[in-house]
Design a protein that fits this description.
The complex is a heterodimer of chains A (113) and B (115). Chain A is mainly β and 113 residues long. Chain A has no helices and eleven strands. In chain A, strand 5 and strand 6 form a beta hairpin.
Chain lengths: 113, 115
Amino acid sequence: DAGITQSPRHKVTETGTPVTLRCHQTENHRYMYWYRQDPGHGLRLIHYSYGVKDTDKGEVSDGYSVSRSKTEDFLLTLESATSSQTSVYFCAISLTGSQNTQYFGPGTRLTVL
Amino acid sequence: AQTVTQSQPEMSVQEAETVTLSCTYDTSESDYYLFWYKQPPSRQMILVIRQEAYKQQNATENRFSVNFQKAAKSFSLKISDSQLGDAAMYFCAYRSNNAGNMLTFGGGTRLMVKP
């Protein structure tokens, strides 16, 4: 257990509304990641962070923004949710000194109607 | 960009038997890591095993072992003495040593275990 929590765990929203998902970690890990999981695609990276206020884009970043104002929190924002963003979202952290293995949070199921 | 392919969408195995899940990847890098993750119905992503590309010895974790063929870019997972609790989606993942240490995942294999 790498001390990762995600909130909310489930959310249903309507097209066009803003949505923010939160990832919280308790162990001061430097790297944090947001992935989405869709059938047939495994997990795909949206954005990642390598420190406070340091973020970069992943493979499927369009329509998403992130922020990291403190080490323990990494926020994922959908400025105007679309039905194509219906997915399961996973946060992960990377443990340094352990082959940089990534450990995952429990996931958030987001449905955009 | 790296790609990871899992060619078996579904596999089944009899309880107590052995099953092998396949994974191939494409990369031009020489130094990287490979992982297998398990995702049971609870949706939690659980690390099963990892392999460093610079190590020739195949990784082993209890009933789980890998067959890492670097030249062939193949990374299969063998599960011995299969148990009902092994039923899950299994994902192969590649981690580059480039900035960000990002993971690239295969599409997954659903493993069913028959009692």
